[in-house]
């Protein structure tokens, strides 16, 4: 029995994860190292990777800041009633339930050139949708719950005793956060950061809708892969896909490491 | 520390900034899509929904989502069981690999399936000779959904199995229960909340999936066009109202699922 | 610090946790807030610290209203029930925290921490983390940390609750001595009457959000002001119809007067042990418990179970044995008032006969 179950598990992993992953690696080098370099060093590929990198940086920083603050407020704020906190808390999860395409559509509807807000920004010469800001907003929407959901349980678990002790010893908000709260939540934050990076690196649906996928302008690595496949240029797509996959595996290792640290605090 | 940092204005500034950010980023867009879908009137909404391409896409999504969730529940429960209960070489590696579909861009996941099973590939060619059609047909969509939702059930069941007191199981044995009986009477009930909430999460993710599917589905209306791809198509062909109508349908379904998951988890916590 | 509290009120939702509480505490005193769990003791303590805002009422330190001061500005030290030590800081850093916040110089910090480490007997543990300490040691760290910034008022929330019974005894006397030596006004919360009696100069009995009585432990024991205090402090048995007891018929003739009887109010023995036999009742010994230095005797009188102590020197009783029981005095109470009543027959035997 035992052997059968372990064998089956191995089979599932190999078929579903390991073979596909190695197929990408092999595919990228189908035409040798030169083919791989060629696919990767196309100007549009380099530009797309740069766009992805920029999005990752902006989204990670913003999401970390607001995510940590939101988690703090949802757990600690006594200026919000329990009821309001409960409602806000359930809204935090909504982006999980929203298809990325719909997430992108929402941004287009709200900030597109035909909308009131979008029209206003267009008027002052600031393009949101089909441009970088829109792509960042779409990715922020999709990644919002990740940081909040990592930090909240830790805050709940440690309770506010240590923070109150700090207050009676004369420490104000910022000192208390830096010296007392932060050391307890930092590994949860690191884990949340890794998740955010992974998600914003790989975000596709929302960005595709919002960006318009304009080559050399708003194209990201994932939307480039999509376009290459649509153009039956699978070989070229492979190079970029391999880079993305390599990053993901690296992030996965980071995740494991952060998870272990998080459990010890 | 100087007093200006402690000034109340800062505190209120922070609080309102964070709350405004939250409202503008999450609440406003969701609100907006509901408003938009009804902006041209109720009749326009029903018209958009009753377009056969639209409702067939939604039904197909639900059907394939259910199939992939079903497979996921079976396979995921088995894997969670093996990873928690057995010690064997490579266990930690497999355990870390579970999260790979979360970390991997979905478009890359789609490309993998395409490379592996697509026309011209070894397996794809073989299947074609046997009369199976995978890529650009429904099986490919199920595989894509399976791939992206793979971790959910495993990650939901694992902690429950780890928490399960071995004494409970042993108590069942001492009372003369057979292995099968102990499994169905003791182990399965304690895994059930995880199976349900993990399965629901997987299902809602399957409904929402776009990246992996769009690359392998072929997107033929009525046959392999799923809801999220349909919405994308409507946006591309400049029909945001139609896109919004189907979105509202899908969103409402997803929110319901989310609500059920919360209810299940809350019940599990109380028990 | 002289502490004054006037008409303090606090609600949690619809629950009225603290009701019109007023009291005053002299500088340098050690006060115990004693009462059952959920009675509002901790809420009062937290309002004094500024961790909770009162709905109404006034808190003054040194005659100055501090209601609007945040905890940071009140000059208090707080020892939390579970100590709330900073778990990622060493013992040294925990104790130094308040001084660092006040931007004391490195040398000052080192001197003060060393002094407190010695005072609390933690020498050699400075670089340990809280999880490497025993419960008693953690309590000492919490105490040293609260004292480090030289507060004017020390507040302790159930300081011994999380400690083993054996070490608790030791820590109590240690704490008492230490507070005396430092000379700081202190208030501690406890639900354990032995602890309050042993440690505090004065006790405040808190029940259902009200101060029932304030006084020295001896005063409270001797002259409880309310039935609750009488029953909460010391061991006792309550008898629902006091008029049934010999010697209390007249005193308790008003309807529904009840009697609270402490073990030391009762004397048991054989007939020749009592000079005024008519003041005694007949009772049957039900149970005997050996208490190390004396017997605890459960005796049944007219269907009521009374408890008393009996010296080991006296003749040993047997369960089932018939004895004479004299109730010297009782704490009587009804809906209107409560008082201590001596046994009238004992004082003035058979007055009509003479």
Secondary structure topology:
The complex is a heterotrimer of chains A (265), B (271) and C (354).
Chain A: H1 2-28, H2 32-41, H3 43-76, H4 82-92, H5 94-97, H6 100-111, H7 116-123, H8 132-158, H9 161-168, H10 173-202, H11 205-211, H12 221-230, H13 234-264
Helix pairs in contact in A: 1-13, 2-13, 3-8, 3-10, 3-12, 6-8, 6-11, 8-10, 8-11, 9-10, 10-13, 12-13
Chain B: H1 8-39, H2 42-50, H3 52-85, H4 91-97, H5 100-103, H6 106-117, H7 122-129, H8 138-163, H9 166-174, H10 179-208, H11 211-216, H12 227-236, H13 240-270
Helix pairs in contact in B: 1-13, 2-13, 3-8, 3-10, 6-8, 8-10, 9-10, 10-13, 12-13
Chain C: E1 3-12, E2 15-25, E3 30-34, H1 41-49, E4 56-61, E5 64-65, E6 76-79, H2 91-101, H3 106-119, H4 135-147, E7 153-157, H5 165-182, E8 185-190, H6 193-199, E9 202-207, E10 210-215, H7 217-222, H8 227-232, E11 237-239, E12 258-261, E13 266-269, E14 281-290, E15 294-301, E16 304-311, E17 322-327, E18 329-333, E19 338-342, H9 344-347
Parallel strand pairs in C: 3-8, 3-9, 6-7, 7-8
Antiparallel strand pairs in C: 1-2, 1-4, 4-5, 9-10, 11-12, 12-18, 13-17, 14-15, 14-17, 15-16, 18-19
Helix pairs in contact in C: 2-3, 2-4, 3-4
Give the key terms.
heterotrimer, B: 271 residues, mainly alpha, MetI-like fold, 2 domains, 0% strand, globular, C: 354 residues, Rossmann fold, six-stranded mixed sheet, Sulph_transpt1 (chain C), nucleotide-binding (chain C), Mo/tungstate-bd_C_term_dom (chain C)
Verbal overview:
Chain A has helices at residues 2-28, 32-41, 43-76, 82-92, 94-97, 100-111, 116-123, 132-158, 161-168, 173-202, 205-211, 221-230, 234-264. Chain A is globular and about 70 Å long. Chain A has 13 helices and no strands. By secondary structure, chain B is mainly α. Chain B has two domains: 1-37; 51-270, MetI-like (MetI-like fold, Orthogonal Bundle), CATH 1.10.3720. The mean pLDDT of chain B is 85. With 354 residues, chain C is of the alpha+beta class. In chain C, 25% of the residues lie in helices and 32% in strands. Chain C contains nine helices and 19 strands. Chain C has helices spanning 41-49, 91-101, 106-119, 135-147, 165-182, 193-199, 217-222, 227-232, 344-347; strands at residues 3-12, 15-25, 30-34, 56-61, 64-65, 76-79, 153-157, 185-190, 202-207, 210-215, 237-239, 258-261, 266-269, 281-290, 294-301, 304-311, 322-327, 329-333, 338-342. In chain C, helix 2 packs across helix 3 (106-119), helix 2 packs parallel to helix 4 and helix 3 packs across helix 4. Chain C is elongated. Classes of the chains: A mainly alpha (265), B mainly alpha (271), C alpha+beta (354). Chains A and B meet through helix 1, helix 3, helix 4, helix 5 and helix 6 of A and helix 1, helix 3, helix 4, helix 5 and helix 6 of B.
């Amino acid at each position: 029995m035992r052997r059968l179950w372990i064998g089956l598990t191995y089979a599932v992993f190999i078929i579903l994860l390991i073979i596909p992953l190695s197929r990408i690696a092999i595919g990228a080098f189908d035409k040798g190292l030169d083919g791989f370099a060629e696919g990767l060093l196309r100007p549009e590929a380099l530009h797309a990777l740069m766009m992805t990198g920029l999005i990752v940086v902006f989204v990670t920083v913003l999401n970390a800041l607001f995510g940590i603050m939101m988690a703090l407020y949802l757990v600690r704020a006594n200026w919000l009633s329990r009821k309001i906190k409960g409602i806000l808390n359930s809204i935090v999860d909504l982006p999980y339930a929203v298809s990325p395409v719909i997430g992108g559509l929402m941004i287009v509807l709200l900030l597109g050139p035909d909308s009131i807000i979008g029209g206003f920004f267009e008027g002052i010469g600031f393009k949101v949708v089909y441009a970088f800001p829109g792509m960042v907003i779409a990715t922020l929407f999709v990644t919002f719950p990740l940081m909040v959901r990592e930090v909240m349980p830790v805050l709940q678990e440690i309770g506010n005793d240590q923070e109150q002790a700090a207050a009676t010893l004369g420490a104000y908000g910022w000192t208390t956060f830096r010296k007392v709260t932060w050391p307890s939540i930092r590994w949860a934050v690191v884990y949340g950061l890794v998740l955010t990076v992974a998600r914003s690196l790989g975000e596709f649906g929302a960005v595709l809708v919002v960006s318009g996928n304009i080559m050399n302008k708003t194209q990201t690595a994932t939307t480039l892969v999509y376009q290459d496949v649509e153009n039956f240029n699978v070989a070229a797509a492979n190079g970029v896909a391999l880079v993305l996959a390599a990053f993901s595996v690296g992030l996965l290792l980071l995740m494991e490491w952060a998870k272990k640290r998080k459990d010890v605090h | 520390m100087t007093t200006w940092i402690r000034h109340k204005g800062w505190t209120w500034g922070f609080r309102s900034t964070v709350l405004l950010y939250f409202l503008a980023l999450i609440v406003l867009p969701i609100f907006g899509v509901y408003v938009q879908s009804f902006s041209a009137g109720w009749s326009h909404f029903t018209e958009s929904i009753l377009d056969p391409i639209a409702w067939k896409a939604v039904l197909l999504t639900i059907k394939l989502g259910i199939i992939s969730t079903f497979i996921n529940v079976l396979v995921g429960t088995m894997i969670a069981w093996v990873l928690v209960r057995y010690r064997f070489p490579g266990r930690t590696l497999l355990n870390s690999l579970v999260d790979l579909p979360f970390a991997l861009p979905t478009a890359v996941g789609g490309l993998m399936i395409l490379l592996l099973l697509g026309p011209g590939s070894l397996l794809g060619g073989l299947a074609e000779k046997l009369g199976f059609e995978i890529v650009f047909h429904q099986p490919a969509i199920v595989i894509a959904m399976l791939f992206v939702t793979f971790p959910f059930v495993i990650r939901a069941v694992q902690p429950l199995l780890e928490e399960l007191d071995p004494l409970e199981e042993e108590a069942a044995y001492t009372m003369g229960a057979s292995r099968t009986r102990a499994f169905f009477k003791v182990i399965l009930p304690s895994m059930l909340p995880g199976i349900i909430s993990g399965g629901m999460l997987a299902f809602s993710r399957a409904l929402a999936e776009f990246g992996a599917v769009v690359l392998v589905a072929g997107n033929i209306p009525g046959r392999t066009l799923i809801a999220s791809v349909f919405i994308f198509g409507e946006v591309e062909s400049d029909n945001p109202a139609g896109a919004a109508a189907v979105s509202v349908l899908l969103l409402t379904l997803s929110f319901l699922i989310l609500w059920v998951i919360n209810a299940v988890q809350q019940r599990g916590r109380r028990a | 610090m002289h502490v004054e509290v006037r008409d303090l009120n606090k609600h949690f939702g619809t629950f009225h946790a603290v009701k019109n509480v007023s009291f005053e505490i002299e500088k340098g005193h050690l006060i115990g807030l004693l009462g059952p769990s959920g009675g509002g003791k901790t809420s009062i303590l937290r309002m004094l610290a500024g961790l909770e805002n009162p709905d109404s009422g006034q808190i003054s330190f040194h005659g100055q209203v501090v209601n609007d001061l945040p905890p940071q500005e009140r000059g208090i030290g707080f020892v939390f029930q579970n100590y709330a030590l900073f778990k990622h800081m060493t013992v040294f850093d925990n104790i130094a925290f308040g001084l660092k916040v006040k931007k004391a110089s490195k040398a000052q910090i080192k001197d003060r921490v060393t002094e407190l480490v010695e005072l609390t007997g933690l020498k050699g543990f400075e670089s340990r983390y809280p999880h490497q300490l025993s419960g008693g040691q953690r309590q000492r760290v919490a105490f040293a940390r609260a004292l480090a910034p030289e507060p004017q008022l020390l507040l302790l929330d159930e300081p011994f609750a999380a400690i083993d019974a054996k070490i608790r005894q030791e820590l109590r006397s240690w704490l008492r001595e230490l507070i005396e030596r430092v000379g700081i006004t202190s208030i501690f919360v406890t639900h354990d009457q032995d602890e309050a009696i042993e440690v505090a100069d004065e006790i405040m009995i808190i029940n259902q959000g009200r101060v029932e009585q304030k006084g020295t432990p001896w005063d409270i024991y001797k002259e409880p002001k309310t039935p609750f205090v009488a029953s909460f402090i010391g061991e006792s048995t309550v008898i629902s119809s006091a008029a049934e007891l010999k010697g209390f018929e007249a005193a308790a003739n008003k309807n529904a007067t009840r009697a609270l009887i402490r073990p030391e109010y009762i004397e048991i023995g054989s007939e020749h042990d009592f000079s005024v036999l008519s003041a005694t009742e007949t009772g049957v010994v039900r149970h005997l418990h050996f208490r190390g230095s004396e017997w605890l005797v459960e005796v049944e009188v007219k269907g009521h179970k009374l408890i008393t102590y009996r010296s080991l020197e006296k003749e040993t009783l047997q369960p089932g044995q018939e004895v004479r029981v004299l109730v010297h005095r009782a704490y009587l109470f009804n809906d209107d008032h409560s008082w201590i009543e001596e046994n009238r027959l004992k004082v003035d035997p058979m007055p009509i006969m003479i």
